[in-house]
Design brief:
alpha+beta, Immunoglobulin-like, C8orf32 fold, Jelly Rolls, eight-stranded mixed β-sheet, 37 strands, flat
Length: 653
């Protein structure tokens, strides 16, 4: 009877949890976990983590770091089957290596007759293989996985490498209902702890535990025990206008700052920027390359070195490096950097080209300093403490007539003072070796603009003919300059393939210099309008700024990072001639983003038997927090709707 009572209590508990959907409180698999095959908050999810738990602590016997991991996942459809394969990358160096032990895994299924079956992982299905010279992989795939399965698994990872405490990723490419990480860190190890991402912790508790680690001979250490919990974590799905996923994925990271031995020795692992500056200055790849003048003799023409205007001289030096040295596509900054090899081979790494630019400017009296940064795909460097390996790129800052310019000579189409889009990653470290380095903002001063001026005439054949004057600037001009100056013969074909409803009669480019900030071109076009019941339907937007809404997620937890401020302008005049008049035209629109972060204006009027239409789109910031996502999503939806559906209807007089 006692046994039956326990079973009855189990089913009562399971039924209670079923009333609220998935069980996200523990590793127990309930009937509701198996019966529920839909996640309302993310209907696109292929699988969902119902519960996960981690616990890291230092073992008293061998002083290794142990991490216990437990996870329960619901497989919603076949696309989620990959979540049933578990991999751990285990580091090794010499005789020291990480291990994965105590592996246990089970697949639960709800059968057609209503019964629940479980299939355990066989130990022979756990595989170990070499990944590279530093890592092995331990992996296993849970058995008998079907649509609707719930899988559970647990294991322990041990590591002798305490310099980097185990990080914990709260966010993944599938949603999570509950994620908990517990840590116990002895006072011997002091870490810089960083919470990355924009998702807030549900719970964060901390307490001291006395004598958690015994060092022998009466020595001991207290521990700081911490609990981190997040709930209802949305899947991280990559979308347009973002930098690397590592900037946003919600997680906790650890960097060892100080180690204190039981014998009293103290080892400082994390350096100060004062120390880091000295090390960078002494590096053969950076500091020793800066200021090298022996190889600069006779490189520049006398017309450049004799120029008295410092800005003209700097621009001439910049253009010389742009035109004469080819970037080989490598960023490499801390290994095998040689300006001497660059000068000899006329081709080299980005750091070599920009260090040569630095040296030539410095040798000709221009005040310059190197700037270290991390590119958009490399992630943001931490500002809490110096981590030199966070940086992967070098720019040059030149100060001329009290104005500063950031320079990069690797791109043949950049204008003086522009840097590649990949470098627009918010901030960089200005290496002032005399006064001390400091962070500077890396934000373009100028707004990048796209502007179309269109004038069309309605002819007797009910076709529109006329001109499109296009002027782009900044980062909008770069791809056009690269395409046009790279292959002028095929340039117009790209337009013809993109705009099949337009006949291009003639085309000319007025911009002569590929490094110009602006790019201007002119098109003579013919455009056939739609004729229905003697009414003409004209879409005035021959060229469109956006063909679709780039924002499609139900929820986005990370920022929208355009990289630069930009604006879009479209002016069109349609001369109707003598036979037609306006039956209908687009309704005026005026929208603004919160806090004046952006503006959308559409206006139309009739003047002297011509339709005048004006569209203006401004993005007044380059960076928008996730709280702006819904506003931007609606903003872009309106832009696309206007360009596709804002018709002018003409009728015969």
């Amino acid at each position: 009877m006692k046994y039956l009572a326990i079973i009855f209590l189990f089913f009562i508990t399971a039924n209670a949890k079923a009333q609220s959907g998935f069980n996200s409180e523990n590793m127990e698999v309930t009937r509701s976990d198996l019966e529920t095959n839909f996640y309302a908050k993310d209907t696109t999810a292929n699988a969902i983590v119902l519960y996960e738990y981690g616990n890291s602590y230092v073992d008293n016997n061998n002083f290794e770091l142990y991490t216990e991991i437990k996870k329960k996942i619901k497989i919603l459809n076949r696309k989620g089957f990959d979540k049933a394969t578990i991999k751990e990358y285990l580091y090794y160096e010499g005789s020291k290596h990480e291990r994965m032990n105590h592996i246990s895994a089970t697949t639960f299924n709800l059968e057609s007759n209503g019964s629940i079956t479980s299939t355990r992982l066989d130990k022979k299905d756990v595989f170990e293989e070499k990944y590279n010279d530093r890592y092995n992989i331990t992996k296993f795939t849970l058995p008998n996985v079907k649509e609707g399965s719930v899988i559970t698994y647990s294991y322990t990872v041990s590591t002798p490498y305490m310099y980097k405490y185990r990080e914990w990723k709260f966010q993944d490419d599938i949603p999570k209902l509950y994620s908990e990480y517990r840590t116990s860190i002895p006072a011997n190890w002091e870490y810089n702890i960083k919470l990355v991402g924009f998702k807030k912790l549900y719970k964060h508790d901390m307490e001291k535990k006395a004598r958690c680690l015994e060092g022998g001979n009466g020595t001991y250490a207290d521990c700081t025990e911490t609990v981190y919990i997040m709930k209802d974590i949305p899947a991280f799905i990559e979308e347009d206008y973002m930098t690397t996923i590592n900037n946003y994925l919600s997680r906790i990271e650890y960097e060892l700052k100080t180690f204190k031995s039981f014998d009293g020795r103290v080892e400082n692992i994390t350096k100060t920027w004062k120390i880091a500056d000295k090390e960078i200055k002494a590096m053969p790849e950076i500091g020793k390359q800066l200021g090298k003048r022996g190889m600069l003799k006779d490189i520049l023409d006398n017309s450049i070195t004799n120029e008295e205007n410092p800005l003209k001289k700097a621009k001439a030096i910049y253009k010389y490096v742009q035109d004469n040295y080819i970037w080989n596509g490598k960023y490499q900054m801390f290994k095998d950097v040689s300006v001497k090899d660059l000068v000899k081979n006329k081709s080299g790494k980005a750091s070599e080209i920009n260090i040569l630019l630095y040296n030539l400017l410095d040798d000709n009296g221009i005040k310059v300093m190197p700037v270290l940064l991390s590119t958009r795909n490399n992630g943001l460097p931490t500002q809490l403490y110096p981590v030199i390996s966070d940086f992967n790129y070098l720019l040059v800052q030149a100060t001329i007539n009290n104005k500063t310019y950031l320079l990069d000579a690797t791109n043949k189409y950049l204008s003086f003072g522009e840097i590649p889009f990949k470098c627009l990653n918010h901030y960089g470290r200005l290496m002032d070796f005399k006064m001390g380095s400091y962070y500077i903002d890396i934000v373009p001063e100028k707004t990048s603009v796209v502007h179309y001026r269109v004038e069309l005439n309605l002819d007797e054949n009910k076709n529109l003919t006329g001109t499109i004057d296009s002027k782009t600037s900044g980062y909008h001009a770069l791809p056009l300059k690269r395409s046009y100056f790279g292959n002028k013969q095929d340039y117009l074909k790209d337009y013809e393939n993109k705009y099949t409803n337009i006949t291009f009669l003639d085309h000319s480019v007025t911009t002569k210099d590929k490094t110009s900030f602006d790019f201007s071109e002119n098109f003579d076009v013919e455009y056939q309008v739609e004729n229905i019941a003697d009414n003409l339907y004209v879409n005035p937007f021959l060229f469109k700024f956006f063909t679709e809404n780039p924002f499609k997620l139900q929820e986005r937890t990370y920022p929208i990072d355009f990289g630069y401020k930009d604006a879009y302008l479209y002016n069109v005049k349609i001369n109707l001639g003598k036979n037609y008049e306006v039956l209908d035209r687009p309704t005026d629109v005026s929208l603004t983003l919160p806090n004046n972060k952006g503006m959308l204006i559409l206006s139309s009027q009739i003047h002297d038997n011509a339709v005048l239409l004006f569209l203006k789109i401004n993005f007044n910031d380059s960076f928008y927090g996730p709280e702006y996502y819904d506003y931007l999503k609606q903003f872009f939806a309106k832009i696309v709707d206007i360009q596709n559906n804002a018709l002018i209807v003409l009728k015969k007089k």
